[in-house]
């Protein structure tokens, strides 16, 4: 470590994180068919110990019936169980099922449940969740009339594009109707893309109109690219998310994401059985922050924006504590 990094390390604040996308932690799977109260409390406490203050438990693509059950259960958990000594959930991030079913773009989501956007179904899900859906990730090409995007924005729900191969015109139409975020840029797309006209460059071309989440585990994006994109986009328009699954904080082995068994190797990375894509992340925001501190000499100001303040602003809420121990 050079002197600059050593000096930086001694003065850097230990902030409280805000995570807009997390699927589980420490053996607790937020996509389980029945999430028990004790496990839910355990997960909130594990997140608190890791440094997270506020978070959005994330539900991924599933059948209508399964999502009905899970959203109903989350409504019960969010309303009936006061969280003490734990991170505070701020609602639900629904990632899917209105996603591209194309190979590569669907990522770790079960392809058979990806479907076109359905406004009446979306309204039913918000009713079942008792108004607790706070963010929805969808593919704009699955919502060609932008009816779901427009309705979500009117309800004050964050609308993000993700798992998508939307054209530039489809992205612009979605933005005109309330889309404001692009979910985990650089992921949920094929390994091989057209040289010029591809979803990453389309999304970046609209950076004056969009905000972006990035997964900072060093595997979803190499750190040099993470730094480059933050510089191109501007640190005011980026929030780092963990996309952690139940394996986060646990040794390598077999773990769960919904009905799926995920293998986590010695490098701590959850991958599909054929190794073709990642299945969420094995790192929490606290783990990412510690790795980022080793990689970069970010100021506390930048660190706070990327790991806390921008996400707070997008949620339209205020945190209860800015740094650990306050």
Number of strands: 14
Low-confidence stretches: 1-11
Under the CATH scheme, which class? Alpha Beta
How many domains? The number is 1
**SSE succession:** HEEEHEHEEHEHEHEHEHEEEEHH
* CATH fold-level topology: TIM Barrel
- Strand pairing plus helix content: what structural class? alpha/beta
In short:
This protein is of the alpha/beta class and 326 residues long. The chain contains ten helices and 14 strands. The protein has helices spanning 3-11, 37-50, 64-80, 119-128, 147-154, 168-176, 199-205, 223-233, 285-295, 300-315, and strands at residues 17-22, 24-25, 28-29, 52-60, 88-89, 92-95, 133-138, 158-161, 181-182, 211-215, 238-241, 253-257, 260-264, 270-271.
Protein topology:
Blueprint: H1 3-11, E1 17-22, E2 24-25, E3 28-29, H2 37-50, E4 52-60, H3 64-80, E5 88-89, E6 92-95, H4 119-128, E7 133-138, H5 147-154, E8 158-161, H6 168-176, E9 181-182, H7 199-205, E10 211-215, H8 223-233, E11 238-241, E12 253-257, E13 260-264, E14 270-271, H9 285-295, H10 300-315
Parallel strand pairs: 1-4, 4-5, 4-6, 6-7, 7-8, 8-9, 9-10, 10-11
Antiparallel strand pairs: 2-3, 12-13, 13-14
